[in-house]
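2024-03-11 09:14:02 DEBUG pipeline.ingest accepted 1 chain
2024-03-11 09:14:02 DEBUG pipeline.ingest length=115
2024-03-11 09:14:03 DEBUG pipeline.predict start
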Amino acid sequence: QEQVVESGGGLVQAGGSLRLSCSVSGRIFDINAMGWYRQAPGKQREFVADVTGGGTTTYADSVKGRFTLSRDNAKNTVYLQMNSLRVEDTAVYYCRTIIAHVLYWGQGTQVTVSS
């Protein structure tokens, strides 16, 4: 049974940095994509960034130049380095993984940016 585990959320002041991690465990044969979405209170879940199995990385316009997604294939893990955080980045961040064309979500990790 595949599991998606996130870590790294927390409270930070505006302008600060955080790093999120997402690891996938289980019978992993083919990871099609891994990445992050977020959901702020009262808003719909939105795309943040992801990386395909082939290594193509995509970012939402709102985080380009501030967030960096990287991956460690040996550990089936992706990292989201978030710099220059803004109050509007406050949200629950969810790891989204597609394994053998099946979609999995993590439980979410809270990121709070204070002014």
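2024-03-11 09:14:41 DEBUG pipeline.report DSSP finds no helices and eleven strands in the chain.
2024-03-11 09:14:41 DEBUG pipeline.predict end
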